[in-house]
Amino acid sequence: MFRMSRMRQLANLPSLHRPGLKTVALCCLLFLTGLSYAGMNVEFDRDRIEAGQEFRMFLVIPLQELPPDHGLPEITDLQGFDLKGVDSVDEKINTFFTGRMTVRKFRYTLVAPKVNGAYSLPMVWNVGGQQRSIGKIRIDVARSMDAPGLQVLLTPNKQNIYEGEQLTLTMTLLTYENFQGGLNLGSVDLGNDFVAHRADLSKLSFGRSQRPGVQSEVSAPIAWLAPIRSGALEVPELKFKYQKMGAPKMVNKQMGNFSFSSMTQGTEEATALSGKVRLKVQPLPLEGLPTQFTGLVGQYSFDAKVDKTQLQVGEALSMVITIRGNGKPGSIPDPVLPSFSEFRSVPPEADLQKTIENGQVWTKRTLKVFLYPKKKGTFTIPAFSYNWFDPKAKKYVVVESPTWQIQVEKGEITEAAATGGGAPLVYAGAEKRAIEQLGQDIRFIHEPTRIQNQFLRLYKSVLWWILLFVPLLILIPFRMWYSRYLANRSNRAYVRRERAMRILQERLIEIRELVANKEMRQFYAKLESLLIVFLGDLYNTELQGLTRQDLSANLAQHKVPAEDIARILQWLEDGDRARFAPIAVSEQDTMAILDQVQAMCNRLGRIVS
Amino acid sequence: MKAWLVILALLIVSASAAEANCEIQFRAGVEAYKNERYEESISQWNSCLQMGVRFGDLYFNLGNAYYRNGQIGQAIRHYHTAKKYMPTDPDVQANLEFAEMSMVDRTETTGAEENPVLKAIFNLHHALTVDAQWRLIVGLIWIFAILLAATWMIRHERLRFWLQIKMVAVAGLTGILALSVIAKIWEAETSSSAVIITRATDVMSGPGEKYQVLHELHEGTTVEVREQRDKWVSIRLGDQVAGFVSSDHIGMVE
Description:
The structure holds two protein chains of two kinds. By secondary structure, chain A is α+β, with helices and mostly antiparallel strands. Helices cover about 25% and strands about 35% of the residues of chain A. Chain A has ten helices and 31 strands. In chain A, the strands form nine sheets. In chain A, strands 9, 11, 13, 14 and 15 form a five-stranded antiparallel sheet that branches. In chain A, strand 14 (about 205-210) and strand 15 (about 215-225) form a beta hairpin. Chain B is α+β, with helices and mostly antiparallel strands. Chain B is globular and about 75 Å long. In chain B, the strands form two sheets. Chain B has a five-stranded antiparallel sheet. Chain B has helices at about 1-35, 40-50, 55-70, 70-85, 90-100, 115-125, 130-155, 155-190, and strands at about 190-195, 200-205, 215-220, 220-230, 230-235, 240-245, 250. In chain B, helix 2 (about 40-50) packs antiparallel against helix 3. Chain B has eight helices and seven strands.
C-alpha cells in the first residue's frame, strides 16, 4: 500500500506538473518494474496450508522502505484463524535485481480454521499515528490430508412414524479434494427391525457441489423401510470404503553410495461411516382396531370385481382383487375370502409388483380367483372386507367388496362332469391349456400292493458292477478252453488216446460180463482184442497183425516198461494156447487177470497223458 | 467266507425289515389321507423315508398330501422326485403340471422338439430310469456274451452270420443305452435342482442377509442348485436370475 500512497502523492502535484495519460502509464510501468525488487511481499512458510494447521505468514518489507514511526501491521478480522503470536526480524536477502538487501520480516504465527476455503484477511497498519488499510491478504486453506475424503449422511424423511408405516431413507455422499474414487458400499445391514426395499444404486452419479469445501455430491434414496415393531429404533450405520490421497511422506532412498529423500504421496483405503439413524415408532392405536387387521399402514386402494354374473355350468368366472398401497414395501396379505360353497375353486393366481413413484414404494397385489358353479341356480358371492391404517387421517379404514348375484344356467357339460370329470372346459380370453387344467383336481394317491425299495443309483452298487463284468470274466477262460479243445480234436494221437481210455472201460465191462456168464471161450479172444486195440490207440500205432517179436519191439519203441511188455506177451500167449488147447480157468483167476490188465492199462494211460 | 455270507444275510434281512415297517407306515398314511388328515399322512410317509425306503409312489403320495395341505412348494418338490423314479407315469406328470399352475413365478419353457426323430430319441432317453437302463445293459451284455460263445462253437456259416448280425444289433443297442446312462449319471452327479418351499424368498447377491436383494422368488419355483455355503445355497434360474437363497427356504429334489 506504500505503492498506492506514492501514487496519491503523485496525483496531488500542481496541475502544471500533472502528468498526462501516457506519463501515468509510463510511471506505472516503472513503478511495477520497481515492485519486482522493492515493496511489501507476503510469504508463507509452506506451499499448502491445511485446515487446523499452524503456519507462519511473513510480511516482508525492505528496510529502506519502512516508514518512520510505524507499528506492527494488524489483521483486523481473523475469520476463524487463531493468531498465536507476532514478531519481526531483520534479514539480509539476495534479490535478482538489487542484489543483497536488508528486509524486515513481520512474522505472524497462525492456526488455520477447521473449515477449508479461500479467506481474505484485511490488514491495517498504524503509521504516523494513523491507521491505514494495507489491503487484504488471501489465504487458501486446504482440507487436511488426514481428514476424510468422503462424508456420508443418512436422512429419513420422517423421524416419528407408526409401526408399519413406510419411510424413505436418503443417503447423501459428499466428496472432498482428497477423495480418489474406488467407492464401495459393503453390506447394507438395515437391522432386524424393518422390512426394507433397497434401492438400485448402480446408476448413482456425482455432480458438482455448492457446499464450501465439497468437491462433488450425490443424494438419493437408499432404502424404503417399514418398522415391524414400536419403540425407539435405530437404523445401523452404513459403511463405505473408498480411496483417498494420503498425507505426503518423506521417504529415504538408497542407490548405491547415494542416499536421498523424496516426498511421496500415494492413495490409501479409508472407511466412511454414515452414523446411525434414530427413529421413534409409535404403536398403532387400539381404538377402532378391526378384527383380522391386515397390519398395513399407509394409503391403500382396494378393488374387487367379477368378469361375469351369468354363466353356464362348466364355465368359470374369475374374480380379480387388486390391492395397492404405499405401506410395508413388497408385502400385502391376501384378503380373507368368503366360503364359496356353491362353487368349486382352485388355488388363486397371485401377482405382486413393486414400483417407485414420487419417492415411495408402491406395492400392488393382484389376486385372480377362478370359480366354477356346481349346479344350476342363482347364487350369491358374499362381500368380504379389507382394512388398513391411514397414518395421515390417524384412523383405520375398512372397505368391503360388492356382493354379487350369479345366475347359473344348465350347460352342455353335465354337472357330474363339471364337478369332477375330465371334459375340457372352454373359457374365452384365457390360455386353453390352463383352463383344461383348471376345473380338474390332482389325481388320487397310489396304493401299490407291494412296498419295495427302488434304487435310483444302481450304478453305485458293487453287485451290479460285478454282474456287468462277469460275462467277460467267463468268456475269456471259455475261449481259452474251447481253443484248446479244438486243437485237441484235430490231434489224431490225442483223439486215439482219449478213445483208448474210453473203450478200455467199456471192453472190460463187456469181458467181465462174459466171465460172469461163464462164456470162457471168448475170454482170451476179447482180452487179446482189448490189448491190441487199447495199446494201438494209446500209442497211436498199428499193432494189428504184428508178430509177437514185432509187437514187443514196437512197444519197447514207445517206452512201455519191459515187465509190462512181458506180461502183455504172456497174456497173448495164454490166449493163443487157450485157443488150441483149452484150459479150464477159474472165474477167480480170470477176474484176477482182468484186474491186472485194467491196472496196467490205467497206469500206461496215465504215463502217456 | 462265512463272515461275508453272514454280513450279506444280515443286510438282506435288515432291508426286508425296513420294507416291512415301511409298509405299516405307508398304509397308515393312506388311511389318514383318505380321512383328510394330511399332516398325519405326511408324517407317516416321511417316516418311510427315514427308514431308508424310497420308491416312486411314496414321493407321489407325499406330493399329493403336501398339495392338499397347501404347501405347493413341497408338493412340486416331491412330484419332481417321483418323476425320477417313474418318468413315464401319467399321474405324476399330470399332478406336477397341475401344481405348477399355482405358482406365482412364470418361467418361459422352451418349445417342444418338432423333429420327429429327435423327439423319439428324447422320449426314449427319458422313458426309462437310470436303474432300468442299467439292468437292461447288464442283460444285453449277457446276451452278447452268449451269442459270442455260440458264434465260436457253431460251424454252420449261415447260422454264424445271423448270430453275428444279432451281436451287432445287441452291441449297438447296448452302446446307445450306455451313452444315455452316462449322460444321466453325469447330470445326476453334477447338477441338482431344488424348489422354493416358502411363500417368497429373496435372492441375494451374496451368502448373507446383508447383501443386496436381486430378485424375489415365490413358492413352487424350481431352480438349479450350483453350490452350498453354510446356510446359503447358490442357485440359478435361466439366464436372468442367479444368486443365493437361504437353505431353509428351498427343498432339494432328491
